[in-house]
Amino acid sequence: MNNILVKIRNTIISTIYITVLKPILFTFDPEKIHDLFIIVGGVIGSNPITRALNALSFGYSNKKLEQKILGIKFRNPVGLAAGFDKDAKMIKAIKSTGFGYTEIGSITGEPCEGNPKPRLWRLEKSKGLIVYYGLKNEGSEKIAKKLKNKKFNIPVGISIAKTNCKATVTTEAGIADYAKAFKTLHNLGDYFTINISCPNAHGGLPFTDKEKLEKLLKELDKIQTEKPVFLKLAPDLSHKEIDEIIEVSDNHNIKGFICTNLTKDRENEYIKQHLKDADPVSHGGISGKPIRDLSTKIIKYVYKKTKGKYVIIGCGGIFDAKDAYEKIKAGASLLQMITGMIFQGPQTISDINLGLVKLLEKDGFKNISEAVGTDKN
Ligand SMILES: Cc1cc2nc3c(=O)[nH]c(=O)nc-3n(C[C@H](O)[C@H](O)[C@H](O)COP(=O)(O)O)c2cc1C
């Protein structure tokens, strides 16, 4: 489909989503709507006809967006971030929805119920979410069985974390749980992410500490995989903490960083300014617009510090092509999103890709990879 037709199609779908669908969806409990979208995604992915119709509604491709990174072919840089398709139920619908790749999970060693409900809230004025799922997922063994012998038409990242329960709070038990998830899943998917930044688990974020991270990565290095491994960082880290994480990563099998996860830091002046809703709860992590610039700053810092040695996936508050391009110019080769899609509709994905092509052309870049890290400020 040519660019003008895609623009017209997206304008129509966006108008329907914003004026009809979203006002209805937003009257229901956010977790129920999330569950509903997973069911719909499963149905869309289940047969070629629904996939083709979905692609007609949301697809877009352009050579300028294609990249080969760490041996993996990405048709465009926009991926579905971890936490939406926790149990790998809708991978087959991802390509036709316009994404270039997906990240399933986070998946933990053992099955995990997550935190008590309610555990998802919308921040309508701030265009963000408060997430307190606490790593709800079916566990590594069940999900590994589901993925075994399956081939997918887009790259699939697997995010792993430690089971959210009292039993994994000690460093040794936590490491054993990450290792179980990694071992169970290590020959599946296309890349791995070690999530050390979930804001909602028992025992906090122990593996941002350099000694504990060293122990964790040493153990995970024993599980041989040729697939690239990323670390997912919190937006609340100080430069000193980031430096230490990079220093530890330099000695282990880490190929990149995902910048960033949700923020937990409600005292951060930037977050305070961008939280326009009365905060419904004081726990949970915040996504969306309120974290956009925090994550871009972290991308820029990591990129400058590591001089392109690591692949960076930029994530947090991407709502349009401008947000996406800022992260690419700051140093991200790939992007991920969830909240923008929830607030604006699934056509946001192809809108971002279409807008990126225009921005690349305006700046004289032939391919998106040429724009990575070009913001020198
Ligand atoms: C409903 C929801 C669940 C999430 N669960 C996870 C998770 O299990 N693992 C993880 O690494 N990140 C999780 N995240 C964080 C996202 O992957 C992403 O880092 C964050 O939402 C920022 O991107 P966004 O502003 O585009 O939503 C979750 C986010 C949302 C909104």
Q: Care to describe what's here?
A:
It is a single chain. With 377 residues, this protein is an alpha/beta fold. It has a single domain, classed as Aldolase class I (TIM Barrel, Alpha-Beta Barrel), CATH 3.20.20. The protein has 13 helices and 13 strands. It has helices spanning 3-25, 30-45, 48-58, 91-94, 140-147, 171-185, 210-221, 239-249, 269-274, 292-306, 321-330, 339-344, 347-362; strands at residues 67-69, 72-74, 78-80, 101-108, 120-123, 128-131, 156-161, 191-195, 229-233, 256-259, 285-286, 311-315, 334-337. Strands 3-4-7-8-9-10-12-13 form an 8-stranded parallel β-barrel, surrounded by 4 helices. Helix 11 (321-330) links the parallel strand 12 (311-315) and strand 13. The radius of gyration is 19 Å and the shape is globular. The two termini are 37 Å apart. Flavin mononucleotide is lined by residues 81-83, 86, 105-106, 120, 129, 131, 133, 135, 159, 195, 198, 232, 261-262, 287-288, 291, 315-318, 337-340.
Per-chain topology:
Elements (H helix, E strand, L loop, with lengths): L2 H23 L4 H16 L2 H11 L8 E3 L2 E3 L3 E3 L10 H4 L6 E8 L11 E4 L4 E4 L8 H8 L8 E6 L9 H15 L5 E5 L14 H12 L7 E5 L5 H11 L6 E4 L9 H6 L10 E2 L5 H15 L4 E5 L5 H10 L3 E4 L1 H6 L2 H16 L15
Parallel strand pairs: 3-4, 3-13, 4-7, 7-8, 8-9, 9-10, 10-12, 12-13
Antiparallel strand pairs: 1-2, 5-6, 6-11
Helix pairs in contact: 1-13, 5-6, 6-7, 7-8, 8-10, 10-11, 11-13
Bound molecules: flavin mononucleotide.
